[in-house]
Amino acid sequence: MNYKIKDIPKEERPRERLLTYGVESLSDSELLAILLKTGTKDSSVKDLAIEILNSVHTIHDLKEITIPNLIKIKGIGMIKAIELLATIELGKRIFLNMGDQIRVKLNNPKSIYQSSKYLFYDKKQEYFYCFYFDNKQRLIERKLLFMGTINKSIVHPREVFKEAYLLSASSIICMHNHPSGDVTPSKEDIELTKALVTVGQVANIPIIDHIVVSNTDYYSFYENDILS
Question: Are 133 and 83 within one domain?
Answer without folding.
Answer: no
